[in-house]
């Protein structure tokens, strides 16, 4: 019964089909904790031909650094812009205490009716010591609200993982569990043989390439929810199209080039102590792709704290792009 109900719900919230390429969109700032509406709208317009679903805020959008008021201000900017761009929105509830998640669910009641909003994304509670039973019980409380929900495997933050058995059990109980995102890079759930009753699976890890993970290439995922779609959406979309057209060789070639570029960009920011690597690497890439050779002359991207990324990052990124990835410019 859950599979049929889930399919009907997916058809209702995604009449054009569940997007295959999602993006945890960057938050552009004009001052500390003050999002820039014009740049956010411009970014969404750039993404919309390729990305039909976004997560706001995600880790890449610096959601873990935001309080509830910050998130509310961001949504007031993003939701109308997303509706104009024809992009669906998952509301990110980036909290690792179940009571806080439940309070946030109630606090977002007015957002669920917005035409762009398709549901929420939540993580398990934090704690390496938590059993699968405790994780499942916490997520049951969230899913019992009935809101269409994406579960987010994020062990880098939660210090634990939902097991394949836990995910399959929740899928069987709750038809409003519509999407599962895995950023672990381990892919244990997707590669298991459990029955997930039609839950849509998207890969969030930048490790291990792209093309081979899609169902059309024999992989276990329906699509991607990737930080790098902020910058590389045309190319990631091209990978998906090549796979579906049967050009696996072309898809793997482009996938390998993207993986090399992404690895180089994350290496530039890996030791920076402010913000998080997903936001920082993508802000550097976005800056270089937006401004090209003049990127070093522009003020570097700003983070939620108001601090700007070091100019050295832009210089190093531009040098990498000029040496090996000039198609970005």
What can be said about the biggest beta sheet? Answer: 8 strands, parallel, barrel
Give, in order, the helices and strands.
HEEEHEHEHEHEHHEEEHHHH
Shape: globular
Q: What share of the residues does DSSP label as strand, in percent?
A: 5-15%
Structural class: alpha/beta
Tell me the span between the first and last alpha carbons: 50 Å
How many helices? The count is 11
Low-confidence stretches: none
**Gyration radius, rounded:** 19 Å
What is the strand tally?
10
Roughly what is the average pLDDT, rounded to an integer? 97
Q: Strand order, main sheet: write it out.
A: 1-4-5-6-7-8-9-10
User: What is the share of helical residues?
Assistant: 40-55%
Commentary on this structure:
β4 (53-56), α3 (68-85) and β5 form a beta-alpha-beta unit. The protein is 44% helix and 13% strand. The chain is built from eleven helices and ten strands. The model has no long low-confidence stretch (mean pLDDT 97). It has an eight-stranded parallel beta barrel, surrounded by four helices. A two-stranded antiparallel sheet has the order 2-3. It has 329 residues and is an alpha/beta fold.
């Amino acid at each position: 019964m859950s599979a049929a109900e889930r399919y009907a719900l997916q058809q209702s919230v995604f009449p054009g089909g569940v997007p295959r390429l999602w993006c945890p969109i960057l938050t552009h700032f004009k001052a500390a904790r003050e999002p820039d509406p014009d740049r956010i709208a411009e970014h969404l317009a750039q993404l919309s031909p390729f990305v039909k679903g976004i997560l706001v805020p995600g880790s890449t959008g610096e959601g873990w650094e935001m309080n509830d008021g910050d998130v509310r201000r961001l949504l007031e900017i993003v939701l109308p812009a997303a509706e104009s761009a024809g992009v669906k929105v998952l509301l990110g509830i980036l909290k690792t205490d179940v009571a806080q998640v439940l309070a946030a669910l109630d606090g977002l009641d007015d957002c669920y009716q917005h035409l762009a909003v398709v549901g929420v994304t939540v993580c398990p509670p934090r704690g390496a010591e938590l059993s699968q039973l405790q994780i499942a019980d916490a997520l049951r409380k969230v899913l019992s609200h009935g809101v269409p929900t994406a579960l987010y495997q994020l062990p880098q933050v939660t210090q634990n993982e939902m097991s394949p058995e836990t995910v399959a059990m929740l899928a069987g109980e709750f038809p409003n569990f519509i999407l599962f995102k895995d950023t672990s890079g381990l892919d244990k759930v997707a590669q298991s043989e459990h029955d997930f009753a039609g839950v849509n699976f998207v890969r969030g890890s930048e490790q291990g390439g792209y093309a081979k993970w899609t169902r059309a290439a024999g992989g276990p995922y329906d699509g991607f929810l990737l930080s790098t779609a902020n910058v590389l959406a045309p190319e990631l979309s091209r990978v998906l199209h090549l796979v579906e057209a049967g050009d696996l060789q072309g898809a793997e070639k482009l996938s390998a080039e993207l993986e090399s570029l992404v690895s180089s960009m994350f290496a530039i920011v890996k030791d920076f102590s402010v913000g998080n690597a997903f936001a920082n690497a993508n802000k550097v890439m976005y800056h270089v792709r937006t401004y090209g050779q003049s990127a070093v002359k522009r003020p570097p991207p700003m983070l939620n704290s108001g601090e700007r990324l070091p100019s050295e990052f832009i210089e190093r990124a531009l040098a990498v792009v000029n040496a090996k990835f000039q198609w970005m410019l």
